[in-house]
Amino acid sequence: MNKQYDFIYLTNTPSFYKARLCEELAKKHSVLLVLYGYGAEAVNTRLSGNENGFDYFFLHEGDAGKRNKALVLFRLLKLMARVRARRVLFSGWMAPEYNIYSFLSSKRRNAVICESSAIDSGMDGWKGLLKKAVIRRMSAALPSGSPHRALFEHIRYPGDIHVTGSVGIFNMEGRRPRPHSPSAPLNYIYVGRLAPEKNLELLIREFNSNGRPLTIVGGRSPEGISQKHGRGQHPLSGPPPQ
Protein backbone atom coordinates (compact mmCIF):
# COMPACT_ATOMS: atom_id res chain seq x y z
CA MET A 1 0.00 0.00 0.00
CA ASN A 2 2.26 2.79 -1.24
CA LYS A 3 -0.25 5.55 -1.71
CA GLN A 4 -0.79 9.27 -1.21
CA TYR A 5 -3.89 10.34 0.73
CA ASP A 6 -5.42 13.69 1.48
CA PHE A 7 -6.65 12.42 4.85
CA ILE A 8 -5.64 9.51 7.06
CA TYR A 9 -8.11 9.17 9.94
CA LEU A 10 -6.83 7.30 13.00
CA THR A 11 -9.63 6.07 15.25
CA ASN A 12 -10.79 3.10 17.29
CA THR A 13 -13.86 1.39 15.81
CA PRO A 14 -15.93 1.93 12.65
CA SER A 15 -18.76 3.88 14.29
CA PHE A 16 -21.48 4.60 11.77
CA TYR A 17 -20.97 8.38 11.93
CA LYS A 18 -17.23 8.01 11.31
CA ALA A 19 -17.98 5.93 8.24
CA ARG A 20 -20.42 8.63 7.06
CA LEU A 21 -17.78 11.30 7.65
CA CYS A 22 -15.27 9.39 5.53
CA GLU A 23 -17.88 8.90 2.81
CA GLU A 24 -18.47 12.66 2.67
CA LEU A 25 -14.74 13.41 2.63
CA ALA A 26 -14.18 10.79 -0.08
CA LYS A 27 -16.48 12.70 -2.46
CA LYS A 28 -13.69 15.24 -2.96
CA HIS A 29 -10.61 13.74 -1.31
CA SER A 30 -8.69 10.49 -0.98
CA VAL A 31 -9.23 8.98 2.47
CA LEU A 32 -7.75 6.13 4.51
CA LEU A 33 -9.61 5.11 7.66
CA VAL A 34 -7.35 3.31 10.18
CA LEU A 35 -8.98 1.27 12.98
CA TYR A 36 -8.00 -1.15 15.72
CA GLY A 37 -11.07 -3.37 15.97
CA TYR A 38 -14.73 -3.42 16.83
CA GLY A 39 -16.26 -2.58 20.19
CA ALA A 40 -19.53 -2.32 22.09
CA GLU A 41 -18.87 1.32 22.97
CA ALA A 42 -20.38 2.45 19.67
CA VAL A 43 -22.79 1.39 16.94
CA ASN A 44 -20.37 -0.14 14.44
CA THR A 45 -20.60 -0.37 10.68
CA ARG A 46 -19.30 -3.61 9.21
CA LEU A 47 -16.80 -2.65 6.55
CA SER A 48 -16.18 -4.84 3.53
CA GLY A 49 -14.72 -4.09 0.14
CA ASN A 50 -14.52 -0.47 -0.96
CA GLU A 51 -18.18 0.30 -1.54
CA ASN A 52 -17.98 3.29 0.79
CA GLY A 53 -15.60 5.15 -1.49
CA PHE A 54 -12.67 5.23 0.93
CA ASP A 55 -9.86 2.86 1.88
CA TYR A 56 -9.63 1.37 5.35
CA PHE A 57 -7.13 -0.69 7.32
CA PHE A 58 -7.54 -2.69 10.55
CA LEU A 59 -4.48 -2.73 12.80
CA HIS A 60 -6.30 -5.35 14.85
CA GLU A 61 -9.42 -7.29 13.92
CA GLY A 62 -11.76 -8.35 16.67
CA ASP A 63 -12.42 -6.87 20.11
CA ALA A 64 -10.72 -3.47 20.31
CA GLY A 65 -10.52 -3.74 24.09
CA LYS A 66 -8.48 -6.94 23.88
CA ARG A 67 -5.93 -5.75 21.34
CA ASN A 68 -2.19 -6.07 21.91
CA LYS A 69 -1.21 -2.38 22.09
CA ALA A 70 2.47 -3.02 21.35
CA LEU A 71 1.57 -5.03 18.26
CA VAL A 72 -0.94 -2.41 17.14
CA LEU A 73 1.71 0.30 17.49
CA PHE A 74 4.16 -1.77 15.45
CA ARG A 75 1.56 -2.29 12.70
CA LEU A 76 0.68 1.41 12.76
CA LEU A 77 4.31 2.45 12.31
CA LYS A 78 4.72 -0.09 9.53
CA LEU A 79 1.57 1.18 7.79
CA MET A 80 2.45 4.86 8.09
CA ALA A 81 5.91 4.20 6.67
CA ARG A 82 4.23 2.92 3.49
CA VAL A 83 1.73 5.73 2.94
CA ARG A 84 1.79 9.50 2.72
CA ALA A 85 -0.82 11.96 3.93
CA ARG A 86 -1.54 15.64 3.59
CA ARG A 87 -3.41 15.53 6.90
CA VAL A 88 -3.48 12.94 9.71
CA LEU A 89 -6.69 13.15 11.74
CA PHE A 90 -6.52 11.87 15.31
CA SER A 91 -9.78 10.86 17.00
CA GLY A 92 -9.09 12.48 20.35
CA TRP A 93 -6.37 11.20 22.65
CA MET A 94 -7.86 7.90 23.78
CA ALA A 95 -5.37 5.45 22.26
CA PRO A 96 -1.76 5.25 23.53
CA GLU A 97 -0.64 3.89 20.13
CA TYR A 98 -1.93 6.96 18.32
CA ASN A 99 -0.64 9.29 21.03
CA ILE A 100 2.88 7.91 20.59
CA TYR A 101 2.62 8.25 16.83
CA SER A 102 1.58 11.91 17.15
CA PHE A 103 5.12 12.67 18.36
CA LEU A 104 6.60 10.93 15.32
CA SER A 105 4.29 12.50 12.76
CA SER A 106 4.93 16.03 11.54
CA LYS A 107 3.03 18.50 13.73
CA ARG A 108 1.99 20.63 10.75
CA ARG A 109 -0.06 17.78 9.29
CA ASN A 110 -1.60 16.59 12.58
CA ALA A 111 -5.18 17.56 13.48
CA VAL A 112 -7.42 16.33 16.29
CA ILE A 113 -11.16 15.66 16.06
CA CYS A 114 -12.65 16.31 19.48
CA GLU A 115 -15.97 15.06 20.88
CA SER A 116 -14.98 15.78 24.50
CA SER A 117 -15.79 18.92 26.44
CA ALA A 118 -14.14 20.76 29.31
CA ILE A 119 -16.80 19.20 31.57
CA ASP A 120 -15.98 15.55 30.91
CA SER A 121 -12.24 15.72 30.17
CA GLY A 122 -10.03 15.98 33.20
CA MET A 123 -6.97 18.07 32.50
CA ASP A 124 -5.47 17.90 35.97
CA GLY A 125 -2.61 15.78 37.29
CA TRP A 126 -0.17 13.73 35.27
CA LYS A 127 -2.89 12.43 32.94
CA GLY A 128 -3.84 15.99 32.13
CA LEU A 129 -0.22 16.82 31.35
CA LEU A 130 -0.04 13.89 28.94
CA LYS A 131 -3.28 14.96 27.21
CA LYS A 132 -2.03 18.52 26.85
CA ALA A 133 1.27 17.27 25.41
CA VAL A 134 -0.60 15.23 22.78
CA ILE A 135 -2.96 18.11 21.97
CA ARG A 136 -0.02 20.45 21.45
CA ARG A 137 1.29 18.04 18.80
CA MET A 138 -1.71 19.09 16.69
CA SER A 139 -1.58 22.07 14.35
CA ALA A 140 -5.39 22.22 14.19
CA ALA A 141 -8.31 21.20 16.39
CA LEU A 142 -11.77 20.22 15.10
CA PRO A 143 -14.13 20.36 18.10
CA SER A 144 -17.78 19.39 17.58
CA GLY A 145 -19.30 22.47 19.22
CA SER A 146 -18.94 25.30 21.73
CA PRO A 147 -18.44 23.15 24.87
CA HIS A 148 -15.73 21.18 23.04
CA ARG A 149 -14.06 24.37 21.82
CA ALA A 150 -14.02 25.58 25.43
CA LEU A 151 -11.70 22.70 26.31
CA PHE A 152 -9.03 24.02 23.95
CA GLU A 153 -9.53 27.58 25.13
CA HIS A 154 -9.22 26.40 28.74
CA ILE A 155 -5.76 24.92 28.13
CA ARG A 156 -4.75 27.89 25.93
CA TYR A 157 -4.29 25.76 22.84
CA PRO A 158 -2.16 27.79 20.38
CA GLY A 159 -3.24 26.12 17.10
CA ASP A 160 -6.13 26.75 14.73
CA ILE A 161 -9.59 25.82 16.00
CA HIS A 162 -12.44 25.04 13.59
CA VAL A 163 -15.83 24.11 15.10
CA THR A 164 -17.39 21.46 12.87
CA GLY A 165 -20.99 21.96 13.98
CA SER A 166 -21.65 18.28 14.69
CA VAL A 167 -20.01 14.94 15.30
CA GLY A 168 -18.90 13.57 11.95
CA ILE A 169 -19.86 16.65 9.93
CA PHE A 170 -17.26 19.16 8.86
CA ASN A 171 -19.42 21.84 7.33
CA MET A 172 -23.08 22.64 7.98
CA GLU A 173 -23.09 25.68 5.67
CA GLY A 174 -26.18 25.83 3.49
CA ARG A 175 -28.25 23.60 5.79
CA ARG A 176 -31.11 25.55 7.32
CA PRO A 177 -33.44 24.33 10.05
CA ARG A 178 -37.11 24.03 9.32
CA PRO A 179 -39.14 27.11 10.31
CA HIS A 180 -40.75 26.75 13.73
CA SER A 181 -44.01 28.31 14.86
CA PRO A 182 -43.55 30.20 18.16
CA SER A 183 -47.00 28.99 19.25
CA ALA A 184 -46.01 25.31 19.01
CA PRO A 185 -43.90 24.01 21.93
CA LEU A 186 -40.62 22.34 21.05
CA ASN A 187 -40.03 18.72 22.01
CA TYR A 188 -36.53 17.41 22.60
CA ILE A 189 -35.12 13.92 22.23
CA TYR A 190 -31.83 12.25 23.17
CA VAL A 191 -31.01 9.10 21.19
CA GLY A 192 -27.88 7.21 22.18
CA ARG A 193 -26.16 5.02 24.69
CA LEU A 194 -27.03 5.42 28.37
CA ALA A 195 -23.42 5.60 29.48
CA PRO A 196 -21.65 7.73 32.13
CA GLU A 197 -19.49 9.51 29.54
CA LYS A 198 -22.65 10.88 27.91
CA ASN A 199 -23.24 12.93 31.09
CA LEU A 200 -27.00 12.32 31.02
CA GLU A 201 -27.35 13.36 34.66
CA LEU A 202 -26.45 16.92 33.61
CA LEU A 203 -28.87 16.79 30.68
CA ILE A 204 -31.71 15.56 32.89
CA ARG A 205 -31.03 18.19 35.57
CA GLU A 206 -31.08 20.99 33.01
CA PHE A 207 -34.37 19.89 31.48
CA ASN A 208 -35.92 19.38 34.91
CA SER A 209 -34.84 22.90 35.90
CA ASN A 210 -36.29 24.60 32.82
CA GLY A 211 -39.44 22.50 32.62
CA ARG A 212 -39.01 21.52 28.96
CA PRO A 213 -40.07 18.08 27.66
CA LEU A 214 -37.30 15.57 27.05
CA THR A 215 -37.51 12.05 25.68
CA ILE A 216 -34.55 9.74 26.27
CA VAL A 217 -34.19 6.74 23.97
CA GLY A 218 -31.40 4.24 24.44
CA GLY A 219 -30.24 1.07 26.07
CA ARG A 220 -27.85 -0.44 28.59
CA SER A 221 -28.72 1.88 31.44
CA PRO A 222 -25.75 1.77 33.81
CA GLU A 223 -25.93 2.28 37.56
CA GLY A 224 -25.94 5.91 38.51
CA ILE A 225 -28.12 7.15 35.64
CA SER A 226 -31.28 8.67 37.07
CA GLN A 227 -34.66 7.50 35.83
CA LYS A 228 -36.08 11.03 36.25
CA HIS A 229 -36.64 13.07 33.12
CA GLY A 230 -37.92 16.41 31.99
CA ARG A 231 -41.55 17.45 32.11
CA GLY A 232 -43.83 14.67 30.96
CA GLN A 233 -41.93 11.85 32.71
CA HIS A 234 -40.95 10.15 29.46
CA PRO A 235 -39.72 6.57 29.96
CA LEU A 236 -36.41 5.20 28.85
CA SER A 237 -37.06 3.04 25.82
CA GLY A 238 -35.47 1.36 22.85
CA PRO A 239 -33.30 -1.70 22.26
CA PRO A 240 -29.63 -1.85 23.22
CA PRO A 241 -27.14 -0.72 20.54
CA GLN A 242 -26.17 -3.36 18.01
Topology:
Blueprint: E1 3-10, H1 16-26, E2 31-35, E3 55-58, H2 69-80, E4 83-91, H3 96-102, E5 110-114, H4 125-135, E6 140-143, H5 146-154, E7 160-161, E8 188-191, H6 200-210, E9 214-217
Parallel strand pairs: 1-2, 1-4, 2-3, 4-5, 5-6, 6-7, 8-9
Summarize the structure.
The protein has 242 residues and is of the alpha/beta class.
Compute the number of helices: 6
Give average pLDDT, whole number: 81
Number of strands: 9
Stretches with pLDDT under 50, minimum 5 residues = 221-242
Radius of gyration: 19 Å
Strand content: 15-25%
Distance between the termini: 32 Å
Q: Judging from the principal axes of the Cα atoms, what is the shape?
A: globular
The major pleated sheet works out as: 7 strands, parallel
Order of adjacent strands in the largest pleated sheet: 3-2-1-4-5-6-7
Structure description:
This protein has helices spanning 16-26, 69-80, 96-102, 125-135, 146-154, 200-210, and strands at 3-10, 31-35, 55-58, 83-91, 110-114, 140-143, 160-161, 188-191, 214-217. The radius of gyration is 19 Å and the shape is globular. The strands form two sheets. Strands 3-2-1-4-5-6-7 form a seven-stranded parallel beta sheet. It has a two-stranded parallel sheet with strand order 8-9. It is of the alpha/beta class.
